[in-house]
Amino acid sequence: RAETGAAAILTAHTRDDQAEQVLLALARGSGTRAIAGIPPERGAIHRPLLGISRGETEQACRAQGLEPWQDPHNTDPAFARVRVRTRVLPLLEEELGPGVAAGLARTADLAREDADALDRLAEQLHDSLTERSETGIALSVESLAEQPDALRNRIIRRAAGAAFGSHLSREHTRSVAALVTDWHGQGPINVPGATVERIAGRLEFRAAGRSTS
């Protein structure tokens, strides 16, 4: 894109690709953001065909006299996505009736709306609640306790990520959240890149290996 001066890159992901992504995310037990599937846009990447099926794109190519390029990976059953495409989704359509792929794509749209809203709220709360401490950053336990789980967990993950570049798993996040919701003197909690401890009504985040003063 930089070499050609193009404004954007368009990809050919379709509604079928979206359905496969959602089904795989559900099978993994992923959260709302993963179930939201493939985003229509991300930076300069645009996916204008997510609302139509693979069959419709192929028909459009034939009508225009175009020969679509087929990714050879699309027929390799070593990939879970290919097995979902060739075995799982056809079976679901057979057993549950037509429209499964479209229904999964709608699920992605609904999940994306919720995830976007929750992420924006969490970002605003994180920015307003975060304080600098001698060893890193701190969040008020009382303020975190007032938030529903979905926001509290997002604030915790954002705090660790923004301050230390940490990517917290659900297990790590739940352990840190327990310092707020189920505290009985436990801690400190070690997470990737950081240590979190409840001190004097605040969650203190500090870089891993750094002790409190």
Distance between the termini: 50 Å
Uncertain runs: none
Can you give the helix content as a percent range?
Answer: 40-55%
Give the H and E element order.
EHHEEHHHEEHHHEEE
Mean pLDDT: 93
Tally of helical runs: 8
**Overall form:** elongated
**Major sheet strand order:** 4-5-8-7-6
What does this structure look like?
With 213 residues, the protein is an alpha+beta fold. It has eight helices and eight strands, in the order βααββαααββαααβββ. It has helices at residues 15-28, 32-35, 54-63, 80-96, 100-129, 141-145, 149-164, 170-181, and strands spanning 9-10, 41-42, 45-46, 131-132, 136-140, 189-191, 194-199, 202-207. The strands form two sheets. Strands 4-5-8-7-6 form a five-stranded antiparallel sheet. A three-stranded mixed sheet has the order 1-3-2, with no helix packed on it. Helix 1 (15-28) packs across helix 4 and helix 1 (15-28) packs across helix 5 (100-129). The longest helix has 30 residues, at 100-129. It is elongated. The termini are far apart. 24% of the residues are buried.
